[in-house]
What does this fold into?
Amino acid sequence: MHPILARLERLGSYLALWCAVGVFESAALTRQGLTWPEALVQVLPPLLVYSFICLSAWYVCRATPLATSGVPRVLTAALVAAWIGAALWLALSEAWLATLESMPELAPITDRFRAQIPFLFAVSVMLYLLVLSVHYVVLSFEAFRTAERQQLELQVLTRDAELRALRAQVDPHFLYNCLNSISALTGSDAAAARRMCLLLAEFLRTTLRVSTQQSITMAEELSLAERYLSIEQVRFGARLQVERSIDDSALECQVPPLVLQPLLENAVGHGIAGMIDGGTIRLDVVRRGDRVSITVENPRDPDAMPRKRGGVGLENVRKRLAVVFAGAARLEAAAGPDGFRVAVDLPFTIHA
Amino acid sequence: MPEPSSLPPRPSSLTLRVAVVDDEPLARAVLCEFLAAEPNVEVVAQCANGFEAVKAVSELTPDLLLLDVQMPKLNGFEVLDLVGRDVAVVFTTAYDQYALKAFEVHAVDYLLKPIAADRLSEALARVRERLGRGERSASPGAIAAAKPQEGPVHRVLVRDGPRVHVIAVDKIDYVQAQDDYVCFRSEGKDYLKEQTLGDVEASLDPKVFVRIHRSYLLNLSRLVRVDQDERENRVAVLTDGRRLPVSRSGYTRLNSLL
It folds into this structure.
């Protein structure tokens, strides 16, 4: 929709401007001997019609946007449109004045008009070009506003996605159980309760921070994993044991954030939590040349219901690896009768 | 007789004997701490899993189980299924999605973790009120009916006093109705459970277990052949040589599956 025609108050101001131009022109005519009514009735109607002709500039602007059209194209389009518009206006004025000739009391200015056609034509072209440039300004202003709004919307969406990712990463029930542990410790061991609060805060802060990043170092991912395991060890006590074997040469490797975290969460939630006496989670990080592999192994209750391909957490990791590495990374999950093993194999890359 | 003296003794004046069941030591600790501050409450047992809980119910006959839902081996609902008629149950869990199911199986209350002391007091008051009315939890049928429709069960739990037998479904040869009980035949042993054969049939995979007779539910993989005896009655012959009667409609069902 035309930005000026669409809103009544805009159309009003636009026409008021044209009336001002008309009054200005009539004033010039009164100095040449016409009365005000004579001048106005001869000038204003064609001028107001021309104001509407000039609105066609909007479509010219739309057809030749500044951003994508070259300067010659814009100039050609503008001049051609202005020329047609001005010619149309001259023809209309001519017709209007011819009509007025039938009324001699209006002291027709037809002869003077004809004498000034080249000048009037030039003025009309200038007016048209002026309106055209105003339209370009309006257009770019609107484009700017739209871009600004889209930027804001994008920010909101990004934030939203981050939060959703976080919610997917941090199981709320993990939080509730943690808080229950803290509540328990407050009564018996205040120092331990405080330690748990700090651990949890650190864990959440780090999770939130890294979840917005494209990639982090293996060292960072491992330290996040350690925080998580420390919290779970407070909950599960001696039931949760962890054995690690970390290859120092892999620590600098860039990995997608929270790639290891869901594997450990599964190992605890679906493995250790289901065993009366608990068990040991094995975490191995190995570098072989330009490949790095992360392996998480956990025992599980052989009587427990079989898991369906490792659940949502594992599926998310698999998808993210596919997006980030486009086939250059693999996730393999293997369920044995009394254990579960997940191996992630990805290229060794360090931050440039 | 004046009104007050006609009332039964106030239940809150009786000591409530409680067993706390949770696989996390700290979760048990916070409940015990809160219970210690309650008047007329005695913690008679702390159990780290469902087996211990069933044992405690049999040996110590508590009035109330504070029962975690997510535990190794036996979850809270399975424990309720096994002991629900002998003890009042209040669930404690971080998960709110089980609440509806909990009340369907007539749990007295449902406490969300982190546990709030005043919510626990409220739950205890409800337990006293319900015990005062002499009410117990739901019948096994109601519990079975309230089980989520997540497909057939993988195992059957049978309580034998303080012990719990966990029978894998593929180890069951057949199930036989015996009055108010059903008898699961598995690996040469019989396990009695108070349940109807219809409920058992509904909980098992209909492609594996066939109602061959009013009183028999047969694991198809145990069937060798169907014979006719001298009186023209059909008989199912099992892999171990055992013979079970097959009714006319049972034979039709068998044929439609074979």
Notes: Chain B has eight helices and 15 strands. The CA atoms of residues 173 and 240 of chain B lie 9 Å apart. Helices of chain B lie at 25-36, 50-60, 76-83, 99-104, 117-132, 140-145, 197-203, 248-257.
